[in-house]
Every structure is written in C-alpha cells, then in structure tokens.
Design a protein that fits this description.
Helix 1 crosses helix 3, helix 8 runs antiparallel to helix 9 and helix 10 crosses helix 12. The longest helix has 22 residues. The chain is globular, with a radius of gyration of 23 Å. The strands form three sheets. Strands 1, 2, 3, 4, 5, 6, 14, 15 and 16 form a nine-stranded mixed β-sheet that branches. Strands 7, 9, 10, 12 and 13 form a five-stranded antiparallel β-sheet that branches. It has a two-stranded antiparallel sheet with strand order 8-11. By secondary structure, it is an alpha+beta fold.
Length: about 400
C-alpha cells in the first residue's frame, strides 16, 4: 500500500508540473527566469507548504522547504534536484527529484518524526545551462560560486544576460551571493533522478545506485575570418571561418573515441555569420561539451582542440576565442550512503545495480565539497531530453522509500 499511495501523490504533482512549459504538446521547455519557471516555483511552494515545510525562495531563484529539527544549527540533510529543463525536453528530468524529496518530507512529517537536524528540500534553478550555456547556477550559488559579475558575463542567444533576466524575473542579481549557505551547514546531499540512459530499463533493474558522476568541461568557440563572395573569391585567397572550424570539429569525436573508457565529446551547436548560401562566412561559432570519469582525458581533449585551432585558424589568417563556460571535475559519491541504500533495496526486494552517471547533475556540483549520493530510476528505452522521456510513477515511489530510509538514518 505504501508504494501505491506514494505513486498517486507523485503522479499528481508531476502531472500538474508538466503543464508549465513554453511548448505545449512538444515536450517541456522551462528555461530559467521565465514565466514557466515562475509558475513551477509557485506550485512547488504550495505543495511544500501543504507538506508542512517552511518555504522560501533564495536570491538565486532556488525554492527551499525546511522540516525543522530539534537543533537547526546542526548540519542539515538536503534533498532535491532542478526545476528547469532543456528545450523540448521531458517531463521528469530534474523536477521528479524535487517531487520525490517533497514526498520524503511529507512522510517524515506524517510519521511525527522530529529529527535532530533540519531536513531541507530544494528545487534548484538552472542546472541545465540551456539558456545561458553555463549550468549549475542555483547549486553553485548555494556553495558561494556565483556573483553579480558572473551574472553579467553570460548571455543567452538573444543577448540577454543572466543579470538582466534575473531582474525581469523579480530577483536582484546584486544580492545573488546571499544564496550562499555557510560552510558546514549542509551535512549531506541526496538526489533522485531518472537515469537518462538505457541500462536499467534494458536489464529490467528497478533502481540504480550511482557511484560516480563524470566531470564536464564546456566551451564556446568562435572562429573569425573574412566575409567574401562565394563565386569570385579564389580558394587560396579566402579567410573562411567555416573551413577552419570544420577541420577542428571533425576531429573532436575521434579524440574522445581514442580514450576507450566512456569519455565523450559533443559539438551540439554551430552558427555561421552572415549565414548566406553564397557568402564565405566571416565567423563560425560552435560549442564543445567534454565528459569523462577521468579528468585528465577531458583536459587532453581540450588541449588538442586548442592546438588544432591554433593551426587551422593560423592557416587562413584569422583568429579565435575559446571561452570556457563550465569546468567541473568528476566526483565519487558517498560509499557509506550507497551501502545504506543497498541494504534498503535488499530489505524491500528491489532489484538494483551500481552504475556511473554520464550526465551532470546538481549532485556533481555539490558533491565536490559535501558527502553526496544519487539514486537512479529507469528511463524507458534510455530516452531523455526529449518529449518521449518516460519513467513509471511507481519507480519514483520505490526510490522515495529508499531515500526516506536513508534520510531517517542521517537525521536521527
């Protein structure tokens, strides 16, 4: 009955939250500092209050619910995920982790359990980095890694900075550092998330115990050449930005394959200026996303990209910038908490498997400095970041049971 009751509550919240999208019928598009995000935050606030939590929104746009313990000065147990999405994404990525955290808090409250320390539910702002090309904004701010200068630096494709977007949203970017939690105030961080990969679903496994999250580096590369006529400019007299950029781009995936250990590298965005069919491009801009459990492999690929840019851009007489958008090292998650979850899975008869996360999460940012654990639930056919993303509500209920038992052990 416990699973059935949890399934119903979780399903209700997720069905309501999926309505807050800029692309109805075409997946979830809930970018940071937009009306859709505001609607989702307001809904989460209401549900947190109904669960008996003290609710607030911090200076970075994170929504926070607190179940007070006997001694609020003790390091808290924090659980949550993010409420933003990619463009035309799925209905479960990130947001389901917040709903599961609320469900854990609800059960703790219903059991009249008074923990020794606070249990904190958090919905983070802008984990994906989709709008501004960065990521982990809310969790980074909570750790003290975001400030007004950072907010001014990064802009979306319309030229709107994080700074201006926050002001439009109703937040003061000059106060973003107030979102920082004092060192030592967060004792543990827990996150439930869909796997976003095919392993659990293909093997019929109910839960995934995540032992490692890959490191990530992201770059925006801009190659500058010269605009000329496509028909009248001889090939040996061109400064073709696309020609130089494409010679570098074509090698990046192969450099990742050479590592042969799961390292991946992706060019996900390419833009040319002026973008005419009969014009030699004066500018070519592209992104690079590199991920690996081995941070040295990430650094090596980034080094090779720079060397190739030096060579190819010099050959056309142009110049380039390689702007780092994000650098975060891989992290091994808490073996002690993983062992506790493994024991709970055995006690409930839930099948489980240890596996790494190839996707970044708020747990990656927070896990750099705080004991952290993640629990995965299956993604049907391994699909994610797309409208067909799907996970059974009952799987989220099972995950919340395991996380609740872990939380209780940490709280008492």
């Amino acid at each position: 009955m416990a699973v059935a009751e949890k399934t119903g509550r979780i399903a209700k919240d997720l069905e309501c939250l999926k309505k807050f999208t800029a692309t109805p019928g075409e997946g979830c598009t809930r970018l940071p500092f937009t009306k859709e995000s505001r609607d989702a935050v307001n809904y989460l606030k209401t549900v947190m209050e109904e669960a008996g939590l003290l609710v607030q929104e911090d200076a970075a746009g994170n929504v926070i619910g607190i179940l007070e313990g006997e001694n609020p000065d003790l390091p808290c147990v924090m659980m949550g995920s993010h409420y933003d999405s990619v463009v035309n994404g799925g209905d479960f990525d990130g947001i389901a982790g917040i709903v599961c955290a609320i469900e854990v808090a609800r059960e703790l409250k219903n059991k009249n359990l008074t923990p020794k320390r606070n249990f904190v539910v958090v919905g983070f702002c802008d984990e994906e980095g989709m709008r501004f090309g960065t990521g982990y904004f809310g969790s980074g701010a909570m750790l003290g890694n975001r400030n007004a200068e950072y907010c001014r630096k990064y802009k979306d494709t319309d030229g709107i900075s994080i700074y201006d977007a926050m002001k439009e949203y109703g937040l003061d970017p000059e106060r973003v550092e107030e979102a920082r939690w004092p060192i030592g105030s967060i004792g543990y961080f827990l996150e439930t998330h869909i796997e976003q990969g095919p392993v659990l679903d293909a093997e019929g496994i109910e839960l995934g115990l995540v032992d490692c999250i890959v490191g990530i580096q992201r770059y925006m590369v801009t190659v500058h050449g010269r605009s000329d006529h496509a028909g009248t400019t001889p090939m040996d007299m061109r400064k073709d930005a696309v020609d130089a950029a494409s010679k570098v781009i074509s090698k990046i995936a192969d450099w990742a394959r050479e590592k042969a250990d799961g390292t991946v590298a992706t060019v996900g965005y390419i833009n040319t200026v002026p973008g005419g069919m009969n014009i030699v491009a004066e500018e070519c801009q592209f992104t690079v996303d590199i991920r690996s459990r081995n941070n040295e492999h990430i650094n090596d690929i980034a080094k090779r990209i720079r060397a190739a840019l030096d060579r190819e851009v010099k050959a056309i007489g142009g110049c380039y910038e390689m702007d780092n958008k994000l650098t975060i090292t891989s992290v091994n998650l808490s073996q002690e908490m993983l062992s506790t979850m493994e024991e709970s899975c055995k006690n409930h008869g839930f099948s489980y498997e240890y596996l790494p996360s190839g996707a970044g999460h708020d747990a990656l940012e927070i896990g750099q400095v705080i004991p952290t654990v993640m629990l995965f639930v299956p993604s049907k056919d391994g699909r994610s970041h797309c409208p067909v993303e799907f996970t059974k509500f009952s799987d989220f209920a099972k995950a919340s049971i395991i996380m609740e038992e872990l939380a209780i052990k940490l709280l008492i």
